[in-house]
Amino acid sequence: MAVINTVDDKVTYPVNATYGGASMKAIMQQITTAAADDDGSIWLVGEIPGEARLLDIKCLNEAITGGTDFDLGLYDEDGTVYSADKLLDGIDMSSARTAWTSLALDFGSDDVGKTIAELLGHVNKVVPASGEVAAKRVYRLGLKANTVGSGVGSINLLITYADSI
């Protein structure tokens, strides 16, 4: 059975920089795979506003034996999946990354510069139940192990984004 791992720490940090007039922020999170984790396990990485524009996702990880397929996606606060692999798809963690390495975002060049809400097609739509306009809401980032492997190891993610351009 898949394990949903939650993280209580606040992991969003302001960065003393701007991008196109917007403030830059970073989410940094360390995740550790455990023996109880299995395929389908999800680690909640942090929260990102709907109006944010992704700039980069970097990874630093230990080699996780057999951990060959990880995705980074967007979820609602109640766990509803908006897109399990919208940001990263099929990332192999079986080899160690000993330096921060930028990962290829899983959307085409037509979508570069779009907000999170635009990537999901939620612009100017009212979210059911909450009544919020999607571009103003917060999405949860979830790292999902499609093939978690058998090894225990740490995965460090550094996600930078421009907020409110």
Mean pLDDT: 83
Binned, the helix content reads: under 10%
Strand order within the widest beta sheet? 1-4-9-6-7
- Please give the oligomerization state of what you see: single chain
Helix/strand order, N-terminal first: EEEEEEEEHEE
Number of domains: 1
What is the alpha-carbon Rg in Å?
Answer: 16 Å
Low-confidence stretches: none
Number-wise, the strands total 10
CA-based shape = globular
Taken as a percent bin, the fraction of beta residues is over 45%
Look at the helices and sheets and give the structural class. Answer: mainly beta
Topology, element by element:
Elements: E1 4-5, E2 12-19, E3 22-32, E4 42-49, E5 53-61, E6 69-75, E7 81-91, E8 97-102, H1 116-120, E9 138-147, E10 154-163
Parallel strand pairs: 1-4
Antiparallel strand pairs: 2-3, 3-10, 4-9, 5-8, 5-10, 6-7, 6-9
Please characterize this protein's 3D structure.
The protein has 165 residues and is mainly β. The protein has one domain (4-98, 118-145). The protein contains one helix and ten strands; from the N terminus they run E-E-E-E-E-E-E-E-H-E-E. It has one helix spanning 116-120; strands spanning 4-5, 12-19, 22-32, 42-49, 53-61, 69-75, 81-91, 97-102, 138-147, 154-163. It has a five-stranded mixed beta sheet with strand order 1-4-9-6-7. A hairpin with a 2-residue loop joins strand 2 and strand 3 (22-32). The longest helix has 5 residues, at 116-120. It is globular, with a radius of gyration of 16 Å. The protein starts with a strand and ends with a strand. The model has no long low-confidence stretch (mean pLDDT 83).
